[in-house]
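User: Could you check the structure of this?
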Amino acid sequence: IVFIHGVGLTQAIWEPQMNFFKKHNIIVYDLIGHGETPLQKTQLNLDDFTKQLLNLLNELEIDKVHLVGFSLGALIARNFASIHGYRLSSLNLHASIYKRSEEQKRVVQNRFELMKSDKPASKDRAVRRWFTETYLQNNKEIYDNIFNILNQNDMTNLLKTYKLFVNYEDDDQVLSSIDANTLVTTGQYDVGSTTEMAKKLTSKIKNANFTEIPNGKHLCNIECADSFNKILESFVDKNYDQA
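Assistant: Sure, the predicted structure tokens are below.
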């Protein structure tokens, strides 16, 4: 099982999944320009991230994987699946955007402008957008961990990646070319990757089903780890003979 994190984060967000899926072979890695992975290019596109994943699988001599993509990682996973679907046993698109409204585009653009100032308020708002307030009140260490990941970003690299995310336009032709058995998931209260988006996205992919993660927001693989892990485990097990 290969897990792809989202913009501004690192492979560390998958700790609950690394602990849960110990009986499986799992791979987590840092995207280009994140964590321990350098970035040399002045501009990025989705194909850069797709090539990164392809090179990783080839280097490790892995033929087929169950691919899990979160947020920006879901966009990368969608792109990878449309080009290299023969390398997939299954596909989980978690917290993926789809056809943002003009208002939603404006909100994301405003976040981008605030991010450029590199002020703590931008990071604080992000963490509070990704978790429920009740969860953060009871799990201060999670707030600190995610805030610290955001705080350690190289801003030049982060802005290159976030610009790609902000300006992303969905291509239904890409989605229609996905053949892998697909599970679309999102948190019940995710404000950026809504359940409405997820349902519409599901309808554009053949062999796709949608499952809502109860009570979760954006990073519900952490906040609702038990639910997320069991849903993903069931999906992977159903597709295990595809490996």
